[in-house]
Amino acid sequence: MLTATIDAFEAPAVFNAGDVVTLKEGGPRMTVTYAGPVALNPGNWLICEWFDEHGELRHEMFAPQNVRAEPRSIPAGWVQRNRIGRAA
User: Fold this and answer.
1) Name one Pfam family in it (predicted).
2) Residue 47: inside a domain
3) Which of 13, 32, 45, 75 has the least C-beta neighbours within 10 A?
4) Alpha-carbon distance 54 to 88, whole Å?
C-alpha cells in the first residue's frame, strides 16, 4: 500500500496582514504588514516588519513561497534567558 504524500499538490499558503512568518531558510519572526500586488513587480508579495538584534525596526518585501507561517504567540522557554535585560 502506498502511503507517501506529494507536497507538490498542496495549495499555496495565503498570508494576510497581521500573520507571523519566518523565512524558510531561517531568520527572525516577522509580521506581515501587507499582502498583495506591488507596483512594477508581477504577482503577489508580502511586506514584513521585524526588529533586528539592535532593536531597529526593519521591513522588506518577500515572495510568499519563501516564507512559512509561525504561531502568533511563542512558548515561555523560547526567549533565551541571557537576552533578557541585555544592555544595547
Assistant:
1) DUF2158
2) yes
3) 75
4) 7
Record the pTM.
0.69
CATH number of residue 44's parent domain: 2.30.30.390
d(CA 33, CA 88): 27
The answer to whether residue 63 sits within a structural domain is yes
Q: What is the pLDDT of residues 5-49, one digit of tens each?
A: 544 445 557 999 999 999 999 999 999 999 999 988 888 999 999
User: Would you say residue 23 lies in a domain?
Assistant: yes
Total structural domains in the chain? 1
Q: Which residue has the cell 499558503?
A: 13
